[in-house]
């Protein structure tokens, strides 16, 4: 027998609607170039800042809520675009998703900065745990896992890793599914981390304008970074096809 869900109460529905409005208003403030603050969000919602505290206790909670929901919504858009390719073609889906991630970061740099440039103190374990459920990270690393399922690209054995890295992959604090990966095979998480740092690095440079504007406009730094990784993840034999997919995405920017 399946579980019977108890219908949400009117109060619960109202509370969820308020959270949705908080995120929507915050996103509009970012799009308008306004400062994101509890007072600004409350003002646009027609309530006082103290009334908003019933939903978010402080500024950091506001940032975390908005960042999580914006990341979730953006990831849904990339996933929908990638689904023009079948599930049996994770390499193509990954190529599209990464390109759409870049397009989103360039079009919405303040949202990108809010989500991915929001520092987490080493001792802030609660917020670090929140990072591990990042929708975008889990989506992209899951696609990378699916690619591995087809290409069986090599990854380091535990004993080949630096002790700190070994500890990190055995007890990961990254946004990636890992429960299904045996401990002795966790070297693949090091590939996850390196791949994400490469993608995030080039997109951050472009989104913040810390790169030659001509190179940003052409998309060539992003394209080269993506193509450099094909050999690492066992996709060299698909270079021509995946290059064409990337070029199609870049042409649509």
UniProtKB/TrEMBL annotation:
| Domain of life of the native organism | Bacteria
Q: Known InterPro entries for this protein?
A: Homeodomain-like_sf, HTH-type_TetR-like_transc_reg, MT1864/Rv1816-like_C, Tet_transcr_reg_TetR-rel_C_sf
> Which GO molecular function annotations are given, in alphabetical order?
DNA-binding transcription factor activity; transcription cis-regulatory region binding
Pfam families listed in its UniProt record: TetR_C_33
| SUPFAM superfamilies in UniProt | Homeodomain-like, Tetracyclin repressor-like, C-terminal domain
Which key words tag this protein in UniProt? DNA-binding, Transcription, Transcription regulation
User: Which residue ranges does the record assign to the HTH-type transcriptional regulator MT1864/Rv1816-like C-terminal domain?
Assistant: 97-224
Asked if Amino-acid biosynthesis is a keyword of the record, the answer is: no
- Name of the protein: HTH-type transcriptional regulator MT1864/Rv1816-like C-terminal domain-containing protein
């Amino acid at each position: 027998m399946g579980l019977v869900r108890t219908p949400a109460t009117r109060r619960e529905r109202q509370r969820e609607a308020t959270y949705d409005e908080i995120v929507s208003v915050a996103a509009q403030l970012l799009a308008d170039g306004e400062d994101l603050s509890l007072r600004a969000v409350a003002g646009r919602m027609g309530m006082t800042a103290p009334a908003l505290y019933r939903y978010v206790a402080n500024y950091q909670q506001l940032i975390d809520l908005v960042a999580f929901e914006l990341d979730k919504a953006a990831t849904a858009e990339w996933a929908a675009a990638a689904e023009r390719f079948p599930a049996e073609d994770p390499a193509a889906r990954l190529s599209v998703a990464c390109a759409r991630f870049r397009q989103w970061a360039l079009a919405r740099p303040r949202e990108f900065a809010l989500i991915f440039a929001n520092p987490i103190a080493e001792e802030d374990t609660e917020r670090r745990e929140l990072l591990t459920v990042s929708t975008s990270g889990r989506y992209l690393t899951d696609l990378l896992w699916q690619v591995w399922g087809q290409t069986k690209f090599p990854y380091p054995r535990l004993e080949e890793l630096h002790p700190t890295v070994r500890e990190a992959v055995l007890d990961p604090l990254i946004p990636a599914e890992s429960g299904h990966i045996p401990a002795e095979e966790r070297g693949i998480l090091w590939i996850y981390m390196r791949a994400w740092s490469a993608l995030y690095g080039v997109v951050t440079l472009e989104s913040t304008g810390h790169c030659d504007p001509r190179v940003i406009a052409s998309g060539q730094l992003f394209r080269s970074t993506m193509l450099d990784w094909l050999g690492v993840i066992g996709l060299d034999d698909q270079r021509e096809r995946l290059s064409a997919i990337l070029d199609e995405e870049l042409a649509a920017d």
